[in-house]
């Protein structure tokens, strides 16, 4: 008999279901229970860099907005550091993590943050500024990972090692937001298509 | 420096995106293959939480929404450990849960099931694991409830569980089921998981040793997150 390996196996994922808000955003479910809900303030008051808004909608295979999605963002600060011991140091109050839900009627979501800086890639490469996104909802059995890149970073995007892993140029475009201005605030709009024409690229990270 | 990778997620253990018996997945599942990434700092880091973020009462669903008395239902303790695939504890990680009340009704404006709301039960809780990866919640056992999939589908009693780990690559949402529940093998959501042993791993075991006599019965539920490779041939300041 050969020796046996002693690794455990990861717990299997299950859908977050239609009532994910009760646990992760109870205010949206219609009641207050916690002193503070987590994930509302991504960058904090001391963050350097450009204040931006990110907005979008998640669209299903029928072309309809998904109205019960919960989305989490994980991003670096303007210097390209994450709020984590394995990255650099960040400003006091910079969390880099946010959690938003969609409007129940329109499916629109948005959050305010700062634009991240370029982040170290593998083997000395540099990754273009990006937001790491994770989407859960009813009907989604395992959280979907994707990235949002910035349209005003064309040069950095052209060299980004992750975008360049995607062999189809037209699919790379699904990860690049559209930019418009709302007064002084740059607004990046990112439409996530779960299925079909223009399907967003999802990653197995 | 390139960070140490997490073990590849075993996509044959997890449910695939498209599982037609769970109807909502049909229009919400990508048709193209995922692009597999080698980990970068973007994936091996993740948010951290501290005791300033939450309150001690947040893990006690029997008291955290009690207004006129205790909620109705079977008083239970759910406890266990958060471990990685190397069987190492994951300390200080945020565990969040949500569930229906004893009658299978959620406190959510979109839930229209005729079973009543319990005025003393909110149905959500959160806690941080201790240095050994241990967590515990006190709650009432949720009831089964019907859902519109086939006309006669009933979810087994379950508690939704969300865990962070130390990295965005470990982020996981799953569901806890209860030992012996005959609805488990009938449920199209449970059956999205192709691996029978992986289903077993989501079933909490009755734990009489952890009950509080004359007060609360206990179930044990361990959560396993992805493990991480050692970089044998690469210098890491923190060692292997």
TrEMBL record, chain A:
Pfam families: Dioxygenase_C (PF00775)
Keyword hit for Oxidoreductase: yes
Listed InterPro entries: Intradiol_dOase_C (IPR000627), Intradiol_dOase_core (IPR015889), Intradiol_RC_Dioxygenase (IPR050770), Protocat_dOase_a (IPR012786)
Molecular functions per Gene Ontology: ferric iron binding; protocatechuate 3,4-dioxygenase activity
Keyword terms of this UniProt record: Dioxygenase, Oxidoreductase
Residues annotated as domain Intradiol ring-cleavage dioxygenases: 54-82
Listed name of the protein: Protocatechuate 3,4-dioxygenase, alpha subunit
Source organism per UniProt: Paracoccus homiensis
Taxonomic lineage: Bacteria, Pseudomonadati, Pseudomonadota, Alphaproteobacteria, Rhodobacterales
UniProtKB/TrEMBL annotation, chain B:
Record keywords, A-Z: Dioxygenase, Oxidoreductase
Chain segments annotated as coiled-coil in the UniProt record: none
A Pfam match: PCDO_beta_N
BP terms from Gene Ontology: 3,4-dihydroxybenzoate catabolic process
Chain positions covered by the region annotation Disordered: 1-20
Keyword Oxidoreductase: yes
Residue stretches making up the Intradiol ring-cleavage dioxygenases domain: 44-227
Gene Ontology molecular function: any one: protocatechuate 3,4-dioxygenase activity
UniProt cross-references to InterPro entries, sorted A to Z: Intradiol_dOase_C (IPR000627), Intradiol_dOase_core (IPR015889), Intradiol_RC_Dioxygenase (IPR050770), PCDO_beta_N (IPR024756), Protocat_dOase_b (IPR012785)
Protein family (similarity comment): Belongs to the intradiol ring-cleavage dioxygenase family.
NCBIfam families linked to this entry: protocat_beta (TIGR02422)
Protein name (record): Protocatechuate 3,4-dioxygenase, beta subunit
Source organism: Paracoccus homiensis
Organism lineage string: Bacteria, Pseudomonadati, Pseudomonadota, Alphaproteobacteria, Rhodobacterales
């Amino acid at each position: 008999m050969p020796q046996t390996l002693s690794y455990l196996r990861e717990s299997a994922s299950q859908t977050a279901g239609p009532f994910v808000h009760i646990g992760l955003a109870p205010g949206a479910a219609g009641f207050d229970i916690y002193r503070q809900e987590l994930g509302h303030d991504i960058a904090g008051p001391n963050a350097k860099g450009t204040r931006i808004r990110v907005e979008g909608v998640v669209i299903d295979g029928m072309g309809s907005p998904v109205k019960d999605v919960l989305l989490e963002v994980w991003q670096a600060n303007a210097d390209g550091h994450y709020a984590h011991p394995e990255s650099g140091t960040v400003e006091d109050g910079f969390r880099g993590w946010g959690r938003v839900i969609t409007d129940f009627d329109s499916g629109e979501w948005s959050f305010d943050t700062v634009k991240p800086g370029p982040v170290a890639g593998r083997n000395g490469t540099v990754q273009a500024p990006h937001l790491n996104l994770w989407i859960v909802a009813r009907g989604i059995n395992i959280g979907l990972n994707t990235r949002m890149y910035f349209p005003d970073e064309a040069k950095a995007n052209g060299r980004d090692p992750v975008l360049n892993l995607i062999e189809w140029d037209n699919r790379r475009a699904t990860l690049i937001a559209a930019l418009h201005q709302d007064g002084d605030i740059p607004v990046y709009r990112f439409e996530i298509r779960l299925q079909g024409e223009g399907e967003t690229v999802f990653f197995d990270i | 420096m390139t960070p140490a990778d997490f073990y590849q997620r075993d996509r044959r253990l997890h449910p695939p995106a498209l599982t037609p018996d769970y109807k909502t997945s049909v229009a919400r599942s990508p048709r193209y293959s995922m692009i597999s990434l080698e980990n970068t700092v973007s994936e091996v880091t993740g948010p951290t939480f501290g005791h300033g973020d939450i309150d001690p009462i947040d893990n006690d669903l029997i008291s955290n929404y009690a207004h006129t008395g205790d909620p109705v239902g079977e008083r239970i303790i759910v406890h266990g450990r958060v471990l990685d695939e190397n069987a190492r504890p994951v300390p200080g990680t945020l565990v969040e849960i949500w569930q229906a009340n004893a009658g299978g009704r959620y406190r959510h404006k979109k839930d229209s099931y005729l079973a009543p709301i319990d005025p003393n039960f909110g149905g959500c809780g959160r806690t941080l694991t201790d240095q050994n990866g241990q967590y515990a919640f006190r709650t009432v056992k949720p009831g089964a409830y019907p859902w519109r999939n086939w006309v006669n589908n009933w979810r087994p009693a379950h508690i939704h569980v969300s865990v962070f780990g130390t990295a965005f690559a470990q982020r996981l949402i799953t569901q806890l089921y209860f030992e012996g529940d005959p609805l488990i093998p009938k449920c199209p959501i449970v059956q999205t998981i192709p691996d029978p042993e992986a289903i077993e791993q989501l079933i909490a075991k009755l734990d009489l040793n952890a009950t509080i006599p004359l007060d609360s019965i206990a179930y044990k539920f361990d959560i396993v997150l992805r493990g991480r490779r050692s970089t044998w041939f690469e210098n890491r300041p923190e060692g292997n």
